Amino acid sequence: LPHPPLMAVAAMQLAVEEALTRWGSPSATEDFELICKAWPGLLDQDLEADVKPRLAQLAFLERAGALSAEACWKLVVEQPRSIGNYAVQAPWQQDGLVAVNKPFDMRIDLPKGEDRRWDEELTVSDWFSSQFPGEKVRFCHQLDHATSGVLLMASNKAAGRIGSQLFEKRLAGKSYLALVLGHPPWGPDGTHLTYRIA
């Protein structure tokens, strides 16, 4: 596989190390090396579209008191994928229907009267507007902001009606996979939860 250009690696390292230093890392350079060893894919991320918005999101959570500086630092070092994959990807579109891979911790739109929580915050609606200028986004179903996954939307009324009916008539469905830290006390074959957990 081709390696990212050295300038891109240096810019990525600088951005991540500056954030780690702000959050109290005693050795941001060593931490960056640990992060890259744990997740070599970090260097393939887009600095502007993926990493900087995630770092800004963590900074917002720190300012809001939801996470301490130390928690931000530990999260990035222990779970480096938490600072990537912010850009919306569209793996499929046809006849006005668009399926996107909605990143975790991204709202689908801004509720009326609500502002962005941090300057770099983007929504799925923002992505849609950039891809389909002048079209109104029509969500065929919903995903919570914390949830990542496939989100179906439409660029016109007819497609929106068809997409929504797929879910209403249960011709399309949703299934969830939970990722957990640690080792749940389940048997070797895992387990299936068939009841509501929220």
What is the gyration radius calculated from CA atoms? Answer: 19 Å
State the separation between the terminal residues, measured CA to CA: 42 Å
Report the major sheet.
4 strands, antiparallel
Provide the helix percentage: 25-40%
Poorly predicted segments:
none
Q: How much of the residues is beta strand, in percent?
A: 5-15%
The beta-strand count equals 4
Widest beta sheet: strand line-up: 1-2-4-3
- Count the DSSP helices: 6
The computed structural class is alpha+beta
Net shape:
globular
Query: What do the pLDDT scores average to?
Result: 90
Could you state the order of secondary-structure elements as H and E? HHHHEEHEEH
Description:
The protein is α+β, with helices and mostly antiparallel strands and 198 residues long. It is built from six helices and four strands. The protein has helices at 6-22, 28-38, 47-63, 69-78, 124-131, 157-168, and strands spanning 89-94, 97-102, 138-139, 149-154. Strands 1-2-4-3 form a four-stranded antiparallel beta sheet. The radius of gyration is 19 Å and the shape is globular. The mean pLDDT is 90.
